[in-house]
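Section 3.1 - Work completed
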Amino acid sequence: MTLTEIIFILAGTCTVMLFGVKLICLVMVLAPKICYPLPESFMTSLGKWAVITGGSDGIGRAYAQELSKYGMNVVIISRNQEKLDRAARTIELATGVQVKVIAADFTKDNIYGHIMECIEGLDIGILVNNVGILPSQIPCRLLETADLEERMYDVINCNVKAMVKMCNIVLPGMKERGRGAVLNVSSGIAKIPCPLYTLYAASKVFVERFSQGLQAEYRSKGIIIQTVAPFGVSTSMTFHQKPDLVTFSAEDFVRSSLKYLRAGDQTYGSITHTILGWIMQAIPTWVLRSEAFQDNFEEYVKERIRR
């Protein structure tokens, strides 16, 4: 057998194995209830309380609603007191659980002492680090961002620092009890180079890398730390786009993503977004970085917003 034949055989074997692994992953994504079963009491076995940042609206509110259906009391933290109170009343009436609200602006630095005081002594089983902001609602190049200095500060505080600080507050109790789960909400665009959302995407890459390292450090302590990386979800951040095959309502996405809580340190949270993630990562990076792609993508998003 010649060297060339050996190389072709090895290449073919590697290709078959790669597709085999992808097929197994797809099957596991298609059947989360079988592959990653969650006992009915699993959520409450982690603790009596769930803490959700950005919990007054969108994905955060959906997490609060869904976890309350599992019997967990919830703490929702956001900056708008009126929205917090409205969300709390809705959850309490629907499920009968306790709901605590904490008004805090995560773009600020001086909020964490107050948060710590409000949740001190609670048996926190789940922390959802969901709060996040875009530097600009309309995608644009970095230097075209209005009030760039202020927006840089806000994005880093809200998307990066808030997650680290909340972990620092909540993890010690989880470690002491030997149980708990931390869900850090990232974004599907963290998986690819994403011009026009450069600052936002970079902040979400931090979320992923931080979560992976933290899971390695605390897995042996009985703590689940997972990144949840959705693509399209209909929220105020996405101008409440009409749900379709790719874009989920916040409630449907959260309901789906919780099925993958035991699926490892990263999940797209749904079958559709997992397949979309594989497709996006298969696109050559030179395409994503090209001027033509950036111009067309910008026009596409503007058109979606106009509609």
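Second construct:
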Amino acid sequence: MGYILGISAYYHDSAACLLKDAEIIAAAQEERFSRIKNDESFPTEAIKFCLKFANISLAEVDHVVFYEKPFLKFERLLETYVHFAPRGLKSFLKAMPIWLKDKLFIKKKIARALNSIDPKCEKSHTILFTDHHHAHAASAFYPSPFEKAVVLTVDGVGEWATTTVSIGNSAQLTLKKEINFPNSIGLLYSAFTYYLGFKVNSDEYKVMGLASYGQPVYKQLIYDHLIDVKADGSFLLNMNYFNYCTGLKMTNKKFDKLFGHPVRGNDEEILAFHKDLASSIQRVTEEIMIKLTQSLYREFAIENLCLAGGVALNCIINSSIRKHSGFKNIWVQPAAGDAGGALGAAYSVYNTHLSGIRNSESQTDGMKQSLLGPSYTQNEVITALRVYGLNYEKVEGEFYHREIAAYLAEGKIIAYFKGRTEFGPRALGCRSILADPRKSEMKAILNAKIKFRESFRPFAPAILEEFASLYFGEGPKNRYMLFTENYLGDQTGRQALDAVLIPGAVHVDGTARVQAVSKVHHPDFHQLITAFYNLTECPAVINTSLNVMNEPMASSPEDAICCFLNTEIDILAIEGLLVNKKKIGL
């Protein structure tokens, strides 16, 4: 059936994905090339990368598909403004020229952008469109290992839908029910993100991290005034407190009055109030999702659940669903946000439009460890190092991992660059900053001197799959950092089992967002952690993304070098080469 190019763009986190039949060939976010975090622009460079990786021209692509339907989105916008009129006139006047000029006639805009990449493709493609939430659902189900599953998508809003339930069965994906705008769990959570002084559609994970420092003392207030939740988990928001339908802000003065504080400025101190509020909205969202998934399990009696949409990146909620919903198996799309929409759009065309054949196997990783982006040869890296005047040491084979392990054991912080760039928000051991998790002070060092970010932000452990149950209990562990696990070592340093403690990779609430590293699916990273274990008897490392706050994750050698030079990272380990700041006098 040939090649299918999926595209997401023009809202946030634009991306491109290339399928060949049912196989993901390449996928990348535009931010990794533009260096603009959550870049919303047309993914020109991401598309060029996908084509280059497949060694094809754009004219050779059989189908191009966009991840949502702009006319339906415009319909929702107009109907919303009419419903709330005369409120929202200022927002309406600001939005309309953009829609009429750029967003409404997206088909022509996409065609022009594709033509600029390859003039030969101008008339050779019919550009297809799929529903936003169908793209999310497709991204969750088709790469999953399940033949049959309930598929739940939850985010801010697509065209109209904010929450959808579908049933995936072999190659079929059938919508069963949906909740529509303005009722949205994602927008409710984003409203609190805004109120707490963080950036909407970008910093929701900060609210999740902050929640562990507070108590859910405002939970009942939220239930009493902001949201009405039914027994089956469906819900209605009280729009008297929100401004996102008609305004340029998420919340209004009535919201401020309810909680007794104004919106926090992003440079203002985080108070106990903010921690408690984060804890409260996290708990409310968690309880709604549990109620919703329990209802779905009772209704459909299917053992498997797939999740996508921005809310599916909340690993605390995912863990609660796994524990309380009744579903036996849960699979979450690692690029669950809008970037994954490009992937889902392509899958949707293959399975729905082209009647593709799906082969689901429990041991197959359809996402290829999410290592779907660009890679670079050692010679390309050497060229980049020479541009910056950096000397390097070339280390062969297993000695490379041993030397990195020795640096980690000394307390050094490593920028680790190897193979293909991760697709999605998580660093999984190819564009990572690594550190020794045995040192509890490592969290503060990494936040202050490397990431330049808030002190409350936690770090995750990447642990050898075969040791994961020793540290985090029995049961399956996730390879994509999409669930939290309870750490068996307590705050006093005692541990239920005889093993080296890893306090540096554990959050204040005694949990960790675990990445179980598989020898089969991620052999290089497994070798590195094994070398560290052989030296220290510690089978885990701290793993965080190779970037500083408010910058995209590194993709190219130049990105990694800049992060290395502009932070207090000690060692750059990049494609078999080691650059040591002390040895080169930096």
